[in-house]
Amino acid sequence: MKRKLIAAIGVAGMMIGLAACGSDDGGDSGKKAGPDAYKGQTLTVWTMSGSNPDGWTKTVTEEFEKKTKAKLKIEVQDWNGIQQKVTTALSESNPPDVLEIGNTQTPAYAKTGGLADLGDLKKEIGSAWADGVNQPSIYDGKQYALPWYVGNRVVMYNKKVFKDAGITETPKTRADLFKAFEAIEKKGDAEPIYLPGQNWYFFDGLLVGKDVSPVKKEGDKYVSNLADPKVAEAMDVYKQYQAFSKAPKDKDEATPQQAEVFAKGKTGAVIAMGYEAGTAIKANPEIKDDIGFFTIPGETADKPEGVFLGGSNLAVAAGSKKQDLAKEFLKIALSEQNDGALIKEAGWSPKNDAMQKYTVGQPAAEAAGPAAAKSGGTTPLIPEWAPVENPPNPIKTYMTLVLQGKSPAEAAKQVEGELNKRLSQQQ
Amino acid sequence: MKRSLFGRIWPNATAIVLFAALVFPVYWMFSTAFKPTGDIITETPVWFPTDVTFEHFKTAYHAPNFLTLVRNSLTVTLLAVAFSLIIALFASFALARMRFKGRKGMILVFMIAQMAPWEVMVIAIYMLVRDADMLNSLVPLTLFYMVMVLPFTILTLRGYVAAVPKELEESAMVDGCTRPQAFVKVILPLLAPGLMATSLFGFITAWNEFPLVLILNKDPEAKTLPLWLSQFQSQFGDDWGATMAAASIFAIPILILFVFLQRKAVSGLTDGAVKG
Amino acid sequence: MAVQTEPSDVAKTAAVRGQDGKPPVGQHGGNKRKPGIGAAPYLLMIPALAVTALLLGYPLVKNVMLSFQNLNMGQLIQHVTEWNGFKNYQEILTGEDFWRVTLRTIVFTGVNVVLTMVLGTLIGLLLARLGKRMRFTLMVGLVLAWAMPVVAASTVFQWLFASRFGVVNYVLDKLGWHSMAEFNWTGSQFSTFFVVTLLIVWQSIPFVAINLYAATTTIAKELYEAASLDGAGVWKSFTSVTFPFLRPFLYATTFLEVIWIFKAFPQIFTISEGGPNRLTETLPVYAFVEGVGNQHYGMGAAISLLTILIMLGLTSYYLRIVLKQEEDEL
């Protein structure tokens, strides 16, 4: 389910704008002896449903099997119950060799000792990645995973609806955007924006924009920071957006899938990930030519709205008996070429500036770029964070309460207990 | 005694309303599964499908490993039910017909065993199975499903055994049968409807179970149908046509079995076993 | 399908049945031979007791042990045992969540059991009154509802009550209740419980109704005739003949329904995952969310044990009756 995909992609403090030159693994033959060293072995890789598009999977599998003579078994995992699944799998004598782990979960799993140290491999193939992209994979100074993909939200809009309402230029500031919404509302044919009350990652972006975190440190413990007035300001922006929508205040963007609502052509815009266009087109192929994207505008034209940078990493299970083969796989899966192909196919953001070139012709990725570079942020990069996002996420409850009329202070007070409880959960 | 017109009409009228209410969800499942998507996602529901499509069934059927999952589910369910019936037959005979020390305690054990909240014991079970190196196998599943249904099977069969008149057994023994022979020749045939009725419960429980298989068997080849159904739903989200097709496929074996066995069981209960 | 009534009840049934021609049977006739000879009963019990001990008892003991441990992701992955005494229990019992959930579970079980038993009994009695064809029709409906696998049924109910394109909302809207047009059933505690209750009652009624009906067919007509000779009306003959006869069946069925509904997990979990805002969590769902969902496995084990204790408490009355009957038996 896409919603949970979005949920697992967490945290990536990234500042694209670093040096370039991707690492090419072409010349590396590994320290392993003969070319047939891995023959007859099978490498098991767990990816999350929706992460690996067909084209990328095919290329990587062919490349891997040709180079190592081993078999590659990619098992796509369902999001339901994935945490218990990963935890138990890591405890077994025969775990999957490579696993995809969302950014928000990575620190927690790194702490358990279930993941192998990939420091050397990072030096070998990942020296060019932007620090921010790599940050979530590091825990306690060690590299426990390698970044696979990153992405952030944009405005996906219906060109026809905007044009019919007389809007010719894409909005550059928040005020412009709200004006455009007003025009669509006045025209009366469509809902200006479909934004349910619990699009928490959009709200996290707004928090990033206000430069405030949902948690703060008190002594050696993390506690709720929802009572901070800046959180209330961010929530107020959300409320202004939400006022243009008839979407339910107590649902998130996946119930129903916002892209499917958008696909009906009666919606001006949604705050969405690039790949959601695919969902919309699948639901209604006719919508294809009407879909456009632009960066979520900020208060001023020079700085886009804050965005949550989501992402996912690939890790090697510490208990895997095929450490070397797993590393061979990572070298291929994360080569610049295959990263580029993934960006092109799925619309993710590049891992550094030099890779911007792969976004050409990918309108969603092009729209995502500026915000990722200038105003991207994360959820807190602490192991204590993971339980907060287990359903029912108390921050989502906070959002609904405010939208239903409670004052931000009251709402913050109401959910603080649950939030603190989760932050102090025994590890 | 003649009943008034009203007295004759209201039971039938009530029965019709009840029938409609009881059947509607099942009907809606099947009819949605056969409707083209356009007739499903519509402001005005299509009550009776006019265009029939098998598209949704194709989507559901083309899930990877579908046939393996069907085989796994059938294997686990049938074996679990069969084993529990055999074990329960012995136990229920002893409990219904014999006097011995500890009998009461044993009955209590099975009544309490019936309350076991299996869903929340999954981690304990997982750790035991993991440490025995039996993950991704159908054997532990079969065994645990067997125990899940065993208490109910024992306690229910006990009622059926007790309902078989002792005289029949005794006269068989007078005729020279040993007690085991008497059991096989006289009691067992009379128990057949009871066995069928009891097995229904076992079928449903084992066929439906998913928290345990979710955690024990991660290998896609070792999964069962309930996992397929719940994952199917989360993958396809709002594709109600395909989801209902999957639910139909899942429900059909049980529905057929039920309609078939239930008639025997009820008629067995009412005309057979008790009359002797 | 028979409920787990006491052998004596069924024997009584048989005895009553015996009046249509065959000699009455029951416990009076037996016991000429000593029934339990030496080790036989124990040998017969061994397989059942052994598998129960091994496959239920042992996990249960393991569960008890886990409940005294601090067991989270790290400990599970590293196979570490970290004893922490009564800390899990202390945390659960001193928090208000657990008590709130317990109370909610008891109310939820009570409401569902009462609805199921009352409606099921009425339908069972109705079955007895219907003509042959109508009874068959209604029986088919009952069997279909009964046979729907829970996982499939929960999915179907989600679709029936879907806020967009769900047929229930459409009908309510057409009936003039326009605010229900896009009503979100899982948006509030009450409406979520409403849907779950409907699902559970729908699936539980057939068991009660069919059993009750089966039981009524074993009541000999002569008893009613005797009653009406004594001048009893419909109500009187119900209270003096039908009800006393059905009482053991009602007890046994209620006991089973209490257990089944108290334990109802897939229904709630599929429909709402205990939401909104954890307001529809019953004890099993609470244990699952805390234990498995939040990966607080030791805590989950402790909650599950408390759940078992509460269930024992709720059913102790019936268990006592049964044990007493057993004493009188044989």
From TrEMBL, chain A:
<dbReference type="GO" id="GO:0055052">
    <property type="term" value="C:ATP-binding cassette (ABC) transporter complex, substrate-binding subunit-containing"/>
</dbReference>
<keyword id="KW-0813">Transport</keyword>
<feature type="signal peptide">
    <location>
        <begin position="1"/>
        <end position="19"/>
    </location>
</feature>
<dbReference type="GO" id="GO:1901982">
    <property type="term" value="F:maltose binding"/>
</dbReference>
<dbReference type="GO" id="GO:0042956">
    <property type="term" value="P:maltodextrin transmembrane transport"/>
</dbReference>
<dbReference type="InterPro" id="IPR006059">
    <property type="entry name" value="SBP"/>
</dbReference>
<dbReference type="Pfam" id="PF01547">
    <property type="entry name" value="SBP_bac_1"/>
</dbReference>
<keyword id="KW-0732">Signal</keyword>
<feature type="region of interest" description="Disordered">
    <location>
        <begin position="369"/>
        <end position="390"/>
    </location>
</feature>
<dbReference type="GO" id="GO:0015768">
    <property type="term" value="P:maltose transport"/>
</dbReference>
<feature type="region of interest" description="Disordered">
    <location>
        <begin position="407"/>
        <end position="427"/>
    </location>
</feature>
<comment type="similarity">
    <text>Belongs to the bacterial solute-binding protein 1 family.</text>
</comment>
<protein>
    <submittedName>
        <fullName>Carbohydrate ABC transporter substrate-binding protein, CUT1 family (TC 3.A.1.1.-)</fullName>
    </submittedName>
</protein>
TrEMBL record, chain B:
<keyword id="KW-1133">Transmembrane helix</keyword>
<keyword id="KW-0813">Transport</keyword>
<feature type="transmembrane region" description="Helical">
    <location>
        <begin position="240"/>
        <end position="261"/>
    </location>
</feature>
<dbReference type="Pfam" id="PF00528">
    <property type="entry name" value="BPD_transp_1"/>
</dbReference>
<feature type="transmembrane region" description="Helical">
    <location>
        <begin position="182"/>
        <end position="207"/>
    </location>
</feature>
<feature type="transmembrane region" description="Helical">
    <location>
        <begin position="12"/>
        <end position="30"/>
    </location>
</feature>
<comment type="similarity">
    <text>Belongs to the binding-protein-dependent transport system permease family.</text>
</comment>
<dbReference type="InterPro" id="IPR035906">
    <property type="entry name" value="MetI-like_sf"/>
</dbReference>
<keyword id="KW-0812">Transmembrane</keyword>
<feature type="transmembrane region" description="Helical">
    <location>
        <begin position="74"/>
        <end position="95"/>
    </location>
</feature>
<protein>
    <submittedName>
        <fullName>Carbohydrate ABC transporter membrane protein 2, CUT1 family (TC 3.A.1.1.-)</fullName>
    </submittedName>
</protein>
<feature type="domain" description="ABC transmembrane type-1">
    <location>
        <begin position="70"/>
        <end position="261"/>
    </location>
</feature>
<dbReference type="InterPro" id="IPR050901">
    <property type="entry name" value="BP-dep_ABC_trans_perm"/>
</dbReference>
<dbReference type="GO" id="GO:0055085">
    <property type="term" value="P:transmembrane transport"/>
</dbReference>
<feature type="transmembrane region" description="Helical">
    <location>
        <begin position="107"/>
        <end position="129"/>
    </location>
</feature>
From TrEMBL, chain C:
<dbReference type="InterPro" id="IPR050809">
    <property type="entry name" value="UgpAE/MalFG_permease"/>
</dbReference>
<keyword id="KW-1003">Cell membrane</keyword>
<dbReference type="GO" id="GO:0055085">
    <property type="term" value="P:transmembrane transport"/>
</dbReference>
<feature type="region of interest" description="Disordered">
    <location>
        <begin position="1"/>
        <end position="33"/>
    </location>
</feature>
<protein>
    <submittedName>
        <fullName>Carbohydrate ABC transporter membrane protein 1, CUT1 family (TC 3.A.1.1.-)</fullName>
    </submittedName>
</protein>
<feature type="transmembrane region" description="Helical">
    <location>
        <begin position="42"/>
        <end position="61"/>
    </location>
</feature>
<feature type="transmembrane region" description="Helical">
    <location>
        <begin position="249"/>
        <end position="269"/>
    </location>
</feature>
<dbReference type="GO" id="GO:0005886">
    <property type="term" value="C:plasma membrane"/>
</dbReference>
<keyword id="KW-0472">Membrane</keyword>
<feature type="transmembrane region" description="Helical">
    <location>
        <begin position="190"/>
        <end position="214"/>
    </location>
</feature>
<dbReference type="InterPro" id="IPR035906">
    <property type="entry name" value="MetI-like_sf"/>
</dbReference>
<comment type="similarity">
    <text>Belongs to the binding-protein-dependent transport system permease family.</text>
</comment>
<keyword id="KW-0813">Transport</keyword>
<feature type="transmembrane region" description="Helical">
    <location>
        <begin position="297"/>
        <end position="319"/>
    </location>
</feature>
<keyword id="KW-0812">Transmembrane</keyword>
